[in-house]
Amino acid sequence: MGKKKLTIGESKILALIQEEYGPQNTEKDVIRSDSGEAVIFAKDVNGVPYKLINLTNVAAMCENGTIKSEQELISKWIHISDDK
């Protein structure tokens, strides 16, 4: 069975991840859950997995208005944070 292609929304989130973390985060790194959700362990510039981001859920929240702006998306859902 072939790997399912990313939706337009998922691809947009991946592009923002690449801008924030670097181009080492590619579609090849996306994992599909049993329920079909696309997730990625966003890697820092050294290739170390840093943050798990569910592309499917974040894209859906953008589409339905839960995430209201690209600024909110980046600062709250994608940005590298020192908060543990």
Question: What are the main properties of this structure?
Answer:
84 residues, 3 helices, alpha+beta, 3-stranded antiparallel β-sheet
Describe this structure in words.
It is a single chain. The chain is an alpha+beta fold and about 80 residues long. The chain has one domain. Helices cover about 40% and strands about 15% of the residues. The protein contains three helices and three strands; from the N terminus they run H-E-E-E-H-H. The protein has helices spanning about 10-20, 55-65, 70-80, and strands at about 30, 40-45, 50-55. Strands 1-2-3 form a three-stranded antiparallel beta sheet. Helix 1 crosses helix 2.
Give the spatial strand order of the biggest sheet.
1-2-3
Q: What value does the average pLDDT take? A: 90
Given helix and strand content, the structural type is alpha+beta
Please, how many domains?
A: 1
List the helices and strands and how they pair.
Elements: H1 8-21, E1 31-32, E2 38-43, E3 49-54, H2 55-63, H3 70-78
Antiparallel strand pairs: 1-2, 2-3
